[in-house]
Amino acid sequence: MIRRRFLAAMAGAALVPAALGADQGPRIVAFGDSLTAGFGLPSTEGLVPVLQDWLTRHNTPAQIVNEGLSGDTTYGGRVRIHWSLWGGADAVIVALGANDMLLGWSPRQAEANLDAILTAARQGDRPVLLVGLSLRRSGPDWDGIWPRLAERHGCLLLPNIIAPLAAIPAGDRKPYLQADGLHPSGKGVKLLVDHLGPSVQALTRQV
């Protein structure tokens, strides 16, 4: 009798984490570089925690897992994508390419790397949001990559994550950027998340 009660209690306890996980929504891996990682910001002000708060406020259950790596390139992402998905993912946000641009690397090679990353991320028809980027120096060879890859892999697309910053006159951007003039400040991250959030909501609906 005691053994049966113990086993029943253990079985009931085993159901608790599953129920909690269901309430928390799909597990979404945010795969990117310093923007995703939250470079230069307090742990509560990076893109992932601010996005998590945004989704909560907009009644969108989801668990955003930070797989951002500062300084990462599309080649580095190609190397680590399988490891980053090892813990499981119901959906993936892919946001890489900025460092390739800044380093003057080939857009053709970046596209090949992103193609491999998206192939891995989409295994099992896993939903993916591809986050594009357009810098003043990027040009058409770069700008065409994101829509082409999104169409090829059947991904959701946010064409340009920094569009809200780019829309601000250069002389007024200082409060939205860190001292390096490249990475967003806490205020800048909030602006980007307001732009990104609806696309992530759409991603959760595909899970």
Kindly, what is the distance between the CA atoms of the first and last residues, rounded to a whole number of angstroms? 43 Å
Overall pLDDT score: 90
Please, how many helices?
A: 10
Largest sheet: 5 strands, parallel
Overall description:
The chain is of the alpha/beta class and 207 residues long. It has a single domain, classed as Rossmann fold (3-Layer(aba) Sandwich), CATH 3.40.50. It has ten helices and five strands. It has helices at 2-24, 34-37, 47-57, 74-84, 98-102, 107-121, 140-143, 145-153, 163-166, 186-206, and strands at residues 27-32, 63-68, 91-95, 128-131, 156-158. It has a five-stranded parallel β-sheet, with helices on both faces. Helix 6 (107-121) packs parallel to helix 8. The longest helix is centred in the N-terminal third of the chain and has 23 residues, at 2-24. It is globular. The relative contact order is 0.15.
Give the structure's gist in a few sentences.
The protein is an alpha/beta fold and 207 residues long. It contains 10 helices and 5 strands, in the order αβααβαβααβααβαα.
